[in-house]
Design a protein that fits this description.
The complex is a heterotrimer. In chain A, α7 runs antiparallel to α10. By secondary structure, chain A is mostly helical. In chain B, α2 crosses α3. The two termini of chain B are 44 Å apart. The longest helix of chain C is centred in the N-terminal third of the chain and has 24 residues. The radius of gyration of chain C is 23 Å and the shape is globular. The N terminus of chain C is likely disordered. Classes of the chains: A mainly alpha, B alpha+beta, C alpha/beta.
Chain lengths: 306, 375, 360
């Protein structure tokens, strides 16, 4: 900012050309910055800002049952979901799913991330690569994998029935349980990466210091290790939360139509019922939900980081 | 013999089978209230020793006894020691008071008492006014003092300091040296102090353990290790020294109450001189140690006993002192003289060296000298 | 300096908008590229997956053999609704020539002015399409017919179930797949159930809703994946909704592990129309293609390949194929689902399912 601002009044009278020279340098710097930023800004503009603006504009149009979009300016698309308990419930379910998946994913990823962050093994790089290797396959493929594993005749149910632990297969797919299991696994690599990068303040010396001051292993963990990991855990949670509430494929494929969240609702409205304005309005609502969570996250990190 | 506060018996640490041990059957007795410096170059095993005493590392063999109790396998959190780390290791998510109170909290000291003791500990390091600060807002010296307060507030059986001054700048290091020493003396905390800085060790310690290759080469008071080094390594590591191979001749008298004697010694190429050493060295070969500042330098042949004539090869001026390297025959000897306001000696000038017999010390360990002379 | 940035942003925005606008206009039809009745290309939009494979093999390949100078570009979509939204997107400068889609959706397209009327003059084979399969306003005619069927696991049902009521049999609870609306299968089941309850579903579906609510807890999935046929074939479910044509095809593919049948209470047609896009860039070649699509040759071949019933009177199927395509001679009990009614009911019924029927 300061670079672009007018120079402060000089303390002593300066030669006129001195000030001019400085301003010229500043102008040149400013141009260089802009030139460097331009490709990125343009890309962002075309691929993000314009579509977003188009979507917001679309949300004020009027849809109709036979797919005709009437260009107008109406708030009906917002009033309808906001006054309809069904959409409140869908929004709440979406939020709940995000929180559940976020919490579970953080819980199962934390031991892995902690191990990787503290490892001094020469294979650490390889281990981290293995931990995030699932990202090499698409979420769709992994979701199908879970359908096979969790299905009525899938690996889990056939093992459990084979062992005589259950008589009738458990319903692990086509419901929220299946979606949750699938999402937790699919987002683990992201959570692990976010954690490893967020564990910067963790150091073996701090844990040793706590031990030397009389803290048992458990106390060292609860009073030192865990608090120092909190920023990383929070970042991982936020990331997984945001990914979960915006993902469509897994709730659609593993939810079997019984899991209604904002993303599947947007899909239905867009491709099934051709009500783009309404879908756009739901997307804006989802966006607001993101915004709220990020605001809370920033307050929290300031608190922990302080 | 008085009961030791800390006894280390045959302590050994081998990181992996087949490797040279990092600490090799180390023995040491530390008296109550003493500050003992573990001094040595990096890799000598001093930090490994400290970490084994702290309980942060398991010894391969040997035992550690504190107050007559064997604690070799006691977990770190049950040892009741206070440790100050090189990086201070202050908890970044706690403020100064919380950091200092941590050890008391772990010992479940009542809150009110905690408060009073934390305040007292912070006052002791003169940072009572910074209790509510976040640790990252503090300077290096302040963090160092907080770490010290945190370690001392629990009234540790032993205070362990791992290179606590190495992250401070030179000026602050000297101030902190004095401060740590005075706090240690006030609290009478028996202290183990790891350092690679000989000045620090000489200045602060009651006893110095000079370590090399996993072994203690010499354990003694600062004057002992400086004035009466047992080995070439110790003499060389602590302070500067000229080493001369000497054939020890006849004993010429008793030097002091410690039972040392004067000898006539012969140094090849230089002649015969007086020297001091432990009794019974006559007829052997030993290394002679002369500290540069005990070597008298004059620019004109004086009246002294048979000075050695040589030529100045190097002069280095450090303000307080003038270091000169004087070539005498094959030997290059380091000497120091006070600076003078007049003309400084120049390279190529003639110089005359002499020393008093009590300043030329015969190392008791024959070491490699005998072989060198035989060759 | 804020102002500077704003100005620059505005300039960039204006520039980009201009670029976008230009690229949008770039698609205006070019007479030279339009081709003739026997040359050029045809941009076809139609279903994806097995439908695309079979249509390619049975219709498009023979067409290309007959008209080597016409190139067919097949853009596949997973549903008619997706096709419609694609066509809506290019309404001002169409790039698509022909669309084969569900008639409920093509009727919407007709209303929106997305399609052109067709005449027997341009398309001689239209003469073989009986009146009932032609659009009353002269838009794209029916290209093929199918109907909603009951898909079943042949191990569980050695004999095909003869009533939709089998879905409510507690013996199969948890082993049923139902495609919820807006899928046509779910809309059809709503109408069929309503009729079974003795209601007029054009007036209200309360009875059907109550009955479907009883069904819902038994439903394994309301959105079967990968599709409703594989669910039965893999044993995830034993009963489900499906289309007869694909059901017959997968029955063969799975070695008769799965069967499909029309229960006695009746069923709903699924009808595909072939439509000429309004202002189609290659309308002459497109007309040739539509004419071929309505030929007895193409209709018979596709019936053999994917068991869709022909819409032309001069297509004669072998008896074994005829027995497996949906009858169009009035011998099957059909629950009529009028397209105009459907477009008004689709939203409402979808909402009703989501809010009242589908259980968590």
């Amino acid at each position: 900012m300061t670079l672009l601002e007018a120079p402060a009044a000089p303390e002593r009278p300066r030669a006129k050309n001195e000030g001019q020279l400085e301003r010229a340098t500043e102008r040149r710097n400013r141009r260089t910055y802009l030139a460097l930023l331009l490709p990125g800004l343009l890309g962002l503009l075309v691929s993000f800002v314009f579509p977003l603006a188009y979507m917001v504009r679309m949300s004020f149009n009027q849809g109709s049952p036979d797919g005709v979009i009437v260009e107008t300016f109406t708030l009906d698309t917002y009033i309808q979901p906001l006054t309809d308990p069904y959409y409140w419930k869908v929004t709440l379910d979406t939020f709940q799913m995000g929180v559940t998946v976020g919490v579970l994913c953080v819980l199962v990823s934390y031991p892995v991330a902690l191990f990787l962050a503290r490892s001094t093994s020469k294979y650490r790089g390889l281990l981290i690569a293995i931990a995030i290797a699932p990202l090499l396959t698409s979420a769709v493929v992994r979701t199908y994998g879970w359908m096979v594993i969790l299905g009525t005749n899938g690996l889990v149910n056939s093992s459990l029935t084979g062992l005589g632990l259950i008589d009738t297969p458990l319903k692990l797919t086509n419901n929220m349980a299946g979606v949750t299991i699938g999402l937790v696994e699919i987002f683990m690599p992201y959570a692990i990466l976010a954690m490893i990068s967020g564990f910067g303040r963790l150091s073996p010396q701090l844990e040793e210091a706590a031990g030397s001051l009389g803290a048992s292993k458990f106390k060292v963990f609860t009073r030192v290790t865990l608090p120092l990991c909190l920023p990383g855990l929070l970042t991982a949670f936020l990331l997984v939360f945001v990914l979960s509430i915006s993902t469509f494929i897994t709730p659609r494929l593993l939810g079997g139509g019984s899991v209604q969240v904002l993303a599947t609702e947007i899909y239905d409205q867009t491709t099934g019922l051709l009500n783009w304005p309404f879908a756009a309005a739901l997307s804006v609502i989802l966006l607001v939900l993101f915004g709220l969570i990020i605001a809370v996250y920033q307050r929290l990190t300031r608190k922990i980081g302080g | 013999m008085t009961e030791s506060k800390l006894s280390i018996v045959d302590l050994t640490k081998r990181y992996a089978a087949g490797l040279e041990p990092a600490v090799d059957r180390l023995n040491m007795e530390v008296e109550e209230g003493h500050l003992v410096a573990l001094l040595g170059p990096s890799g000598c095993g001093k930090t490994t020793t400290l970490r084994m005493v702290a309980g942060l590392m398991d010894p391969t063999a040997g035992s550690i006894v504190v107050d007559g109790k064997e604690i070799t396998h006691t977990p770190v959190n049950k040892r009741g020691m206070g440790m100050v780390f090189q990086s201070y290791a202050l908890f970044p998510h706690m403020n100064v008071e919380q950091n200092v109170a941590f050890g008391l909290e772990m010992r479940q000291v009542p809150k009110a008492q905690q408060k009073a003791r934390v305040a007292a500990a912070l006052d002791m390091v003169q940072l009572g006014h910074l209790g509510k600060r976040q640790t990252k807002e503090l300077s290096g010296g302040q963090q160092q003092r907080i770490a010290l307060a945190r370690a001392l507030v629990v009234e540790p059986t032993l205070l362990l300091l791992d290179e606590p001054l190495s992250n401070l700048d030179a000026k602050l290091r000297e101030t902190m040296r004095t401060e740590i020493r005075s706090i240690q003396q006030r609290t009478r905390a028996t202290t183990l102090f790891v350092t690679h800085d000989q000045d620090e060790a000489l200045d602060m310690a009651d006893r110095i353990a000079v370590m090399n290759g996993g072994l203690i080469e010499q354990f003694g008071s600062p004057t002992e290790v400086y004035e009466r080094p047992r080995t070439h390594f110790v003499a060389n590591f602590i302070g500067q020294a000229n080493f001369l191979d000497a054939r020890v001749g006849a004993e010429t008298g008793r030097a002091n109450l410690a039972g040392e004697s004067y000898y006539r010694v012969e140094v090849e190429g230089l002649g015969q001189f007086g020297a001091v050493g432990s009794a019974g060295l006559a007829g052997t070969t030993h290394e002679l140690v002369i500290r540069p500042h005990r070597l008298g330098v004059s620019l004109a042949p004086g009246p002294g006993p048979a000075p050695l004539a040589g030529t100045i090869e190097r002069v280095s001026y450090t303000g307080d002192a003038l270091a000169v390297a004087v070539r005498v025959g094959e030997k290059l000897l380091q000497a120091q003289m006070p600076t003078i306001s007049g003309d400084l000696p120049r390279v190529g000038d003639a110089a005359y060296l002499s020393w008093a017999p009590e300043d030329a010390y015969l190392l008791p360990a024959p070491g490699a000298v005998a072989e060198r002379l035989a060759a | 300096m804020r102002a500077t940035i704003k100005r620059k942003m505005a300039a960039v925005a204006a520039l980009s908008a201009a670029m976008l606008a230009m690229s949008g206009c770039g698609g205006s039809s070019d007479a030279a590229k339009a081709g003739s009745a026997t040359s050029g290309e045809v941009n076809l939009i139609a279903y994806s997956g097995v439908w695309q494979d079979q249509y390619n093999a049975a219709v498009i390949e023979p067409f290309k053999a007959k008209y080597p100078d016409i190139k067919i570009n097949y853009a596949s979509k997973r549903s008619s609704a997706e096709m419609l939204s694609a066509l809506q997107g290019q309404k001002n400068s169409p790039t698509t020539d022909v669309a084969i889609m569900d008639n409920s959706v093509s009727t919407t397209g007709n209303k929106q002015g997305l399609f052109e009327k067709v005449t027997p003059d341009a398309i001689p084979n239209l003469a073989n399409v009986p009146e009932k399969f032609r659009d009353k306003d002269g838009y794209g005619p029916v290209a093929m017919l199918d109907a909603v069927g009951l898909v079943y696991d042949t191990a569980t049902f050695p004999k095909a179930p003869d009533s939709w009521n089998v879905l409510w049999d507690p013996a199969y609870a948890g082993k049923i797949n139902v495609n919820a609306p807006p899928s046509l299968l779910g809309l059809s089941l709503t109408a069929i159930t309503s009729k079974m309850q003795g209601e007029d579903y054009t007036k209200g579906i309360d009875g059907a809703v109550a009955r479907l609510k009883e069904l819902a807890p038994s439903v394994q999935t309301f959105a079967p994946n990968p599709d409703e046929y594989q669910n039965v074939i893999t044993g995830q479910t034993v009963l489900g909704l499906g289309q007869n044509a694909r059901g017959q095809f997968y029955s063969d593919q799975s070695n008769k592990k799965m069967g499909v049948t029309f229960p006695k209470e009746g069923t709903v047609y699924q009808i595909n129309t072939v439509n000429l896009v309004k202002d189609a860039p290659h309308s002459a070649a497109a007309t040739t293609f539509i004419n071929y699509a309505l030929s007895a040759e193409a209709q018979t071949a596709f019936a053999k390949a994917l068991f869709y019933a022909p819409s032309v009177t001069n297509a004669h199927l072998p008896a074994d194929v005829k027995a497996r395509v949906v009858p169009t001679d009035g011998s099957l009990n059909i629950v009529p689902l009028d397209v105009d009614f459907l477009s008004s009911a689709r939203d409402k019924w979808t909402d009703t399912w989501k809010r009242q029927i589908i259980t968590k």
